Amino acid sequence: MRIMTKGDVVAVAAGASLLVVTALWVSNGGLQDLTGGGALSATGRLLGLWASDLLLIQVLLMARIPLVERAFGQDRLARWHRWSGFASFWLMVAHIVLITLGYAATARNNPFRQLWDMIWNFPGMLLAASGFLALVMVVVTSIRAARRKLRYESWHLLHLYAYLGAFLALPHQLWSGSDFVGSPPATAYWWGLWGLAVAAIIAYRVVVPLLRNRRHRLVVDRVVPEANGVTSVYFNGNDLHKLPVRAGQFFHWRFLDGPGWTRSNPFSLSAAPAEQIRITVKDSGDGSGRVATLKRGTRVLVEGPFGKLTGEDYAGGPVVLMACGIGITPLLSLLGELPYAPGEATLLYRVRDDASTAFKQELDWYAAERGVRVVYLTGPRARSRSWLPGGRTDELADLAPDIAAARVYICGPEEWAAQAREAVRAAGVPAARVHTELFNW
Q1: Which pairing describes strands 265-268 and 319-324: parallel, antiparallel, or unpaired?
Q2: Which has fewest Cβ within 10 Å: 87, 136, 259, 273?
Q3: Where are the transmembrane segments (predicted)?
Q4: pTM reported for the whole predicted model
Q5: pLDDT tens across 223-248, in order?
Q6: Cα 22 to Cα 17: distance, rounded to the nearest angstrom
């Protein structure tokens, strides 16, 4: 019998919420309307309720709730957030089309005139239309091709309009949505879901970060170049040993050094957390490029920690770490924290050339003092679908002899990480023993 995974639990919970919404629609006469000549409007109402439900689930997925973050990790939550967001958007489009056609048929009106009349004359509809336009902008900029043309900082700022779009729809539901206020159970459900979303955002995206930054007061201690375009930053602060972060995790960072401080960037720890904290950043844009210019004493604000690429379920035995480029950073911090014995750890480090290799001396130390087997995979990108450099055809079992019995940690760009994971699974490693962190957004 197949064992239910955490992902299955989330899917069941989302499905259950949609069933509740459907049941509330039925109790408010949805089926009677569906068979009584108002099929378009009734179907449109149901799709609108599903869209609202998924929109609020989408908000909760990225509300930074610690229990949820620890259970699933932010990269998996981000994927679910994206899927639920696109599903919610297209349900919303269908809702608008069907409601407009249904009202137009009843009033014997032109659909375009009917839509215009609804926007201008129905309570809350002008706000809802504004919210829908905000969501259109978010959806368009979330398409993979569009994201690749945007700076992370610009994309992140535009993405925040999703909150505006969601909350501009609320007055429309309160004033015009019979399924929202049609019965005490419906009112309790919708107010409860909205209240949970708002409370989670305020608590975990505002209050907790403010309190954490007030307590720890991080400041830049020093900036150290590591390789071409790669820079490490060391931070001091108050009681950093009490900061609830583990090796392999990351924060969203804001550097209070002038214009642009409001935009955050996600950077992983590149050393196991101790009395000082270190991150290592590759210059790939405005936010990451400014890191090399930071001055000693610059104040820093953080939000987090996030990520599930940790050693919380590793108690020893063979371990293989696979890094590509700047993906070495969280894996290097794991090397400092994991309780492996000499000879049990293997690091496969994929780099373009020697000049791009960071932490060579540090990795030499791990090899000499802790018995880590470090394998550098140097060379240009392969033209074929391979996680190895072009021209190499090594077997994973030869590079990491204990791979089949190992716990595996993978970090790097999305396409490379997917290829590396395929190779690991093909080598006989169960999915439960493969941990990934994708460097994408």
Answers
A1: unpaired
A2: 259
A3: 47-65, 86-105, 125-146, 158-176, 188-207
A4: 0.80
A5: 998 888 889 999 999 999 889 899 99
A6: 9
